[in-house]
Amino acid sequence: MKNNRTTTIAFDVDGTLVIWDRKSGRQVPNYDIINLLRFYNKELKCRIIVWSGGGIEYARQWVDKLGISAQVMKKGAITPDIAYDDENVELGMVNINVTNADSAPVSVQHALSQGNTNGS
Fold this sequence. Notes:
Elements: E1 8-12, E2 18-21, E3 26-29, H1 31-43, E4 47-51, H2 56-66, E5 71-72, E6 82-85, E7 94-97, H3 108-113
Parallel strand pairs: 1-4, 1-6, 4-5, 6-7
Antiparallel strand pairs: 2-3
């Protein structure tokens, strides 16, 4: 029997979709994660959620600014299949921490290929 259920994947904003650039002192897009989000959305047809501890409007501003196709909602409003965050949180069925101790993005594909969903 075929499973027609759509996989839901949530992405946090700060530290995940956008990261702090120490040189410029500004938040900049994290294109590794944004490209991963777009792959899930376009190629795998997943339901994409973007949320932030900064609130719905803050998340919506970044979705618009980054040109992301996603539903915006309150952080933790649902339990997605996969949750990407820069903090050690348990918001999804599978939780992937996208930073290392230096707050630099890690290769999520490398972490997954190693069977590591904590990003370390």
